[in-house]
C-alpha cells in the first residue's frame, strides 16, 4: 500500500523545518554569548559593594590578671580524662568468642608507660600506682602544648 502525501502536509513540514532552522541559527550566534556576558557585567555593576573594615587584632597583654580572668571562663567545662594501657586489632569472629578469663594481647610491653588522653588527645605518659587501695597514675612525661597542636594537624 502506497501512502499518499497530502500537499498541505508537505508544505507544513517545510514551514516547520524553516522555523527550526531559524531558531537554531539564533541559538548558535556568537553574539548571544557576548550578550550574556554583557548582562552579567551589567548585573554586577548594579551591585552595591562596600569594602569591609576589619578590626585590628591586638596582642594579648602580658599581665597575669587578664589571663586568669580568661581562664576562669573555661575552668568549669568538663573533659574526659582516660588512660590507654594499649590496644590491638581483633576480628569480630574472635571478639564474639571472648569469654570470662580470655586473654587479649595488647601492643605494649609490660612496664611501658600508659598514654594519658584528654578528650582523645594525648597530653602525657604515666605509670600505674596504687594509692589507698585505688588505682592512680603518676605522670612521667607531659606533652608540650606545641607538640599537641602539631599532632592535631
UniProtKB/TrEMBL annotation:
Biased composition (Low complexity): 21-30
Cited Gene3D superfamilies: SpoA-like
Pfam families noted in UniProt: FliMN_C
Domain Flagellar motor switch protein FliN-like C-terminal: 73-143
Keyword Membrane: yes
Membrane topology note: Peripheral membrane protein
Primary subcellular site in the record, as a coarse category: membrane
Compartment(s) of residence: Cell membrane; Bacterial flagellum basal body
InterPro entries found in the cross-reference section: FliN, FliN-like_C, FliN/MopA/SpaO, FliN_T3SS_HrcQb, SpoA-like_sf
UniProt entry tagged with the keyword Plastid: no
UniProt biased composition (Acidic residues): 1-18, 31-40
Keyword tags: Bacterial flagellum, Cell membrane, Cell projection, Chemotaxis, Cilium, Flagellar rotation, Flagellum, Membrane
Region annotated Disordered, chain positions: 1-66
Chain intervals with Basic and acidic residues compositional bias: 47-56
Family of this protein: Belongs to the FliN/MopA/SpaO family.
Functional summary from the UniProt entry: FliN is one of three proteins (FliG, FliN, FliM) that form the rotor-mounted switch complex (C ring), located at the base of the basal body. This complex interacts with the CheY and CheZ chemotaxis proteins, in addition to contacting components of the motor that determine the direction of flagellar rotation.
Protein name as it appears in the record: Flagellar motor switch protein FliN
Gene coding for it: fliN
Amino acid at each position: 500500500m502506497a501512502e499518499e502525501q497530502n500537499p498541505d502536509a508537505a508544505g507544513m513540514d517545510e514551514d516547520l523545518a524553516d522555523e527550526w532552522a531559524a531558531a537554531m541559527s539564533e541559538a548558535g550566534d556568537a553574539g548571544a554569548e557576548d550578550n550574556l556576558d554583557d548582562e552579567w557585567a551589567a548585573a554586577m555593576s548594579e551591585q552595591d559593594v562596600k569594602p569591609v573594615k576589619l578590626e585590628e587584632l591586638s596582642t594579648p597583654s602580658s599581665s597575669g590578671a587578664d589571663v586568669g580572668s580568661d581562664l576562669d571562663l573555661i575552668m568549669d567545662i568538663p573533659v574526659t580524662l582516660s588512660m590507654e594501657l594499649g590496644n590491638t586489632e581483633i576480628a569480630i569472629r574472635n571478639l564474639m568468642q571472648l569469654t570470662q578469663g580470655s586473654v587479649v594481647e595488647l601492643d605494649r610491653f609490660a612496664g611501658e608507660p600508659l598514654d594519658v588522653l584528654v578528650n582523645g588527645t594525648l597530653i602525657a605518659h604515666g605509670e600505674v600506682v596504687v594509692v589507698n587501695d585505688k588505682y592512680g597514675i603518676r605522670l612521667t612525661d607531659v606533652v608540650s602544648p606545641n607538640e599537641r597542636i602539631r599532632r592535631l594537624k
